[in-house]
Design goal:
alpha/beta, 2 domains, 11 helices, transmembrane helix, membrane, transmembrane
C-alpha cells in the first residue's frame, strides 16, 4: 500500500511540476480558504480539490481504477478534475477586488514570472497555415486527394509516422492503413504495412509494396532521407512528385484495383 501511495505521490509531483505555477495555485487556494465566504465557491474551489487529491493519493482508489479495466498509466488524468487554472484565476480576481491598486499589478507580474515563452518548447511551433498543421501535409493531401471526376474511387495512402497525426485533421477522404494506434507503443497493435514501413531500419521497397497492395494503397509517401535497400521504382512504383523532402509514389497496380472495385460496386448498385 505504501508503495502505491508513493507512486501516486510521484505522479502528482510530475503532473504539477511543483514549480512556480503550482505555488501560485496553492497561494490562491490558501487565500480562498481563509477569505471566501460563499459556500458554493468553497465547495468547488476549496473542499472538492482537497477531496480529489486525498482520493487520488489513497492506494485503494488506484487499485479500484485498475480493477475497473482502466489503464493504470492514465491514472494521472484523475488530477484533471482539479480546476487548478480556475482556482488561480478566481483567487487572483478576488484579491484584485479587495486590493485594486496592487492586485492587477501583482497578478500580472506573478503570471509572467511563473510562465514561460511557449515557442521555446520543442513540442510547440508557430502555425504555418489556418489548419495549424504542416504545409507539407496540406500539399501532399491536395496532390493525392480523390478526384472529383471519380468520387467513388477511394484513395488509400501510407504516410511516415511523423505525418500520420495530421492527415486526418486535414482530409478525411484519404484513407490510411493505420493511424496513431500504431504509433502508441503501449497498445502493442500489429499491422503488416506499418511493419514494412517503419520497423526495419533500412526500408525494403519490395516488402513495402507487397504489404501495401494487400491494403490497396494507391500512394506511398516516403522520406527522401530514409535509407532503402533498392529503388522503389524497381518495385513497380511511379514517382509522382517530391514535396519538401518527401517522395510521393503511385502504385499503378493498387490504383487499377481500386478503380475496378469502384466500377464493380457502381454496377452492383444499378
Amino acid at each position: 500500500m505504501f508503495g502505491i501511495f508513493m507512486e501516486s505521490l510521484v505522479i502528482f509531483k510530475l503532473y504539477t511540476g511543483l514549480k512556480l505555477l503550482f505555488v501560485l495555485t496553492l497561494v490562491s487556494f490558501l487565500y480562498l480558504l481563509v477569505t471566501e465566504k460563499d459556500k458554493t465557491i468553497r465547495q468547488l474551489f476549496v473542499y472538492a480539490p482537497v477531496l480529489i487529491l486525498i482520493l487520488f493519493l489513497f492506494p485503494v482508489s488506484r487499485q479500484l481504477f485498475v480493477a475497473m479495466g482502466l489503464d493504470g498509466e492514465t491514472y494521472y488524468r484523475v488530477l484533471w478534475t482539479i480546476p487548478m487554472g480556475m482556482i488561480t484565476a478566481y483567487g487572483a480576481v478576488r484579491f484584485t477586488g479587495r486590493h485594486r491598486r496592487i492586485g492587477i499589478l501583482v497578478s500580472m507580474v506573478l503570471i509572467i514570472l511563473c510562465g514561460s515563452y511557449v515557442y521555446k518548447s520543442d513540442y510547440i511551433s508557430k502555425a504555418e497555415n489556418l489548419y495549424h498543421i504542416p504545409d507539407t501535409v496540406v500539399r501532399i493531401c491536395d496532390l493525392i486527394h480523390p478526384s472529383d471526376a471519380d468520387p467513388d474511387v477511394q484513395v488509400t495512402a501510407v504516410f511516415p509516422e511523423k505525418l500520420v497525426h495530421f492527415v486526418r485533421q486535414y482530409d478525411s477522404d484519404i484513407r490510411m492503413p493505420y493511424g496513431r494506434e500504431m504509433i502508441a507503443s503501449q497498445w502493442d497493435y500489429y499491422n503488416k504495412v506499418h511493419e514494412a514501413m517503419e520497423e526495419d531500419e533500412v526500408l525494403d521497397p519490395e516488402k513495402l509494396v507487397e504489404a501495401c497492395r494487400e491494403e490497396y494503397c494507391q500512394y506511398i509517401i516516403l522520406d527522401k532521407s530514409r535509407e532503402m535497400t533498392g529503388d522503389p521504382e524497381n518495385a513497380g512504383l511511379t514517382l509522382e512528385e517530391e514535396i519538401d523532402g518527401y517522395l510521393i509514389y503511385l502504385d499503378p497496380v493498387s490504383k487499377a484495383a481500386a478503380e475496378s472495385f469502384a466500377v464493380y460496386y457502381e454496377e452492383d448498385d444499378k
